[in-house]
């Protein structure tokens, strides 16, 4: 096996996982390890480097470059200089004068995150996102279909790299707590399996700060007690921990020090709505510009719905005028949809029904409500409707966008409008009356 190592009773693997985890008795290291913690590597920076391959291998940070700017993310090359997130940009530039600074693009990060989460949900419905770039997965129900947990982890890593052009690290363990620690130890671009019978060997040498719930003040208390490692906590009487930290924290850290974590992977409740809105650089009074923006927003809403496995039953538009007065209009469809064409048709019909003519508009928005799982959404079939239609076409656009970038395929009406920069870029100055 290439590039593998043993770390405190756990195994870091970068290739050939099926062979690497076999034991002489026929069991596997990942038996009884259904929990995966998947964490993207330097996520914001990695997203930016997809379109800047010339910067790969250089110290790069993402963040504001003003006098009050802070580091949002840093590549591992930049971290070697001591740069980390939340650091003032001025200090980062002193630590590494040659560092490359890129402005953040949060719309891009949300889009890549949606694609990553879609990969996870292809594996298992038991996905618990922690942020844009990390999540817990329970793959116990996918083992018969996809293979052992470590094999599933490698499949996820390969798909994320192939489809999104970034790397991720995966921790595989019996519990959420240990899986998260495992991914932290395996970074970057690694896979770490902590077998059930090696949890103690893995945990006890770690510093006390590795435990969830140990912040700076708690760590100071533990160090004053002479407790420097997780093993020290494990072998300290519970009563002593309770007296020093209180009943809740004392019991919590004692349980974690022995690898006990009863929490399950819990998917979040479905969003009540999915929407996007746009404030124009200048007030707009051209209905065609408004309709074009409604099309762009409808496409974005539909793309987000599909990425999250949802469909919406009700379409809502929001219109804010130059005087900041705001109105909304909604229409409930006969069946839930995740198709941009259908959302746009409803949105533009709602807008046209307002009869605004030359009203000066500051903001428009499109939102889908009545969210349901798309697999559970019945679709109203029409006579002579082809088996393959707009939904399949837009799913193909999703795949193309994941591979070639945002806006690589878009409706003809949006060509040349700079879609992806927020406002579509069409003329916004009022036309002569």
Quick summary:
The chain has helices at residues 17-20, 43-49, 76-79, 89-95, 106-123, 143-146, 149-164, 176-186, 199-203, 216-224, 230-234, 238-245, 247-257, 287-308, 340-354, 390-404, and strands at 5-7, 10-12, 35-40, 60-63, 71-74, 100-102, 127-131, 134-138, 168-173, 191-193, 273-284, 310-321, 326-337, 361-369, 372-373. It has 433 residues and is of the alpha+beta class. Mean pLDDT is 83; it is low at 1-9, 12-20, 382-388 and 418-433.
The chain-level mean pLDDT equals 83
Largest sheet: 7 strands, mixed
Proportion in β-strands: 15-25%
State the end-to-end CA separation: 74 Å
Shape: globular
Q: Please tally the helical runs, counting DSSP H or I stretches of 4 or more residues.
A: 16
Tell me the strand order in the biggest sheet: 1-2-10-9-3-8-7
Q: Which structural class matches the secondary elements?
A: alpha+beta
Number of strands: 15
Parts with pLDDT < 50 across at least 5 consecutive residues: 1-9, 12-20, 382-388, 418-433
Helix content: 25-40%
Our Rg estimate from Cα atoms comes to 25 Å
Could you walk me through the main structural features you see in this protein, from its secondary elements to its overall organization?
The structure is a single chain. The strands form three sheets. A seven-stranded mixed beta sheet has the order 1-2-10-9-3-8-7. Strands 11, 12, 13, 14 and 15 form a five-stranded antiparallel beta sheet that branches. A three-stranded mixed beta sheet has the order 5-4-6. The chain has helices at 17-20, 43-49, 76-79, 89-95, 106-123, 143-146, 149-164, 176-186, 199-203, 216-224, 230-234, 238-245, 247-257, 287-308, 340-354, 390-404; strands at residues 5-7, 10-12, 35-40, 60-63, 71-74, 100-102, 127-131, 134-138, 168-173, 191-193, 273-284, 310-321, 326-337, 361-369, 372-373. Helices cover 37% and strands 21% of the residues. The protein has 433 residues and is α+β, with helices and mostly antiparallel strands. It has 16 helices and 15 strands. Mean pLDDT is 83; it is low at 1-9, 12-20, 382-388 and 418-433.
